[in-house]
Amino acid sequence: MPCPACGSSIERLTADEHECDPERRLDYLLFHLREEVGRLEAGIAAYLDSAPGRFESWYAERQRLRRAEGQEG
Question: Where are the domains of the chain?
Fold first, then answer.
């Protein structure tokens, strides 16, 4: 049977002894969230392609460069 937390196949007799591998659990959770992650990525891309998003990107880069120049001097 699959572990409900990480998806690993486990034997029913040893289910109480099972410990989820943290990486396996993360992969399992991300697998279930893949559609939501895809929508989020598409939403961010659409925003960054809009006029306000392009301005925010430009402004963030400008601020980053200003901070970098301030650290050099």
Answer: 21-72
